[in-house]
Predict the 3D structure of the following.
Amino acid sequence: MAKAKERESHRSRLRAAGLRHTLPRERILAYLDRKNTHPTPEELHQGLKRRGHNIGLSTVYLNLQVLRNAGLLWEFKDQQGNTRYDGYSERHHHLLCVQCGAVQDILARELPEFNPDPIKAAVENRTGWFVEEARLELRGVCPSCQ
């Protein structure tokens, strides 16, 4: 029953974003919709293959861009400059290890209040840009590297 609810949740998210439902999109969302999962496209491709999903690497790349453009995924660069994707839907920020490149989620509700509105307003006033979202990225040294 949980799998059916999860599938319907992914389908609803796709519809709400104005996207057509496809199995590759559903499977990519399902793979990424977990805390602390930040794969590169190649790592995502391999993870989907391990789960028995035969999705081509070019299909993974194409759908990552579609899902990112629709606002369903967040794309960021790690310490080594690799593009990584994050589909975890609960509001969160990232901790990045400057030594090993590890990425860890930190839930916004677990932190003191972070109000990006004054920062967004200042940037918009100074640059003329419209800032859709501000996220906090903390860089440091993880416990394994200390």
The mean pLDDT is 90. The radius of gyration is 17 Å. Strands lie at 74-77, 83-86, 92-97, 103-107, 137-140.
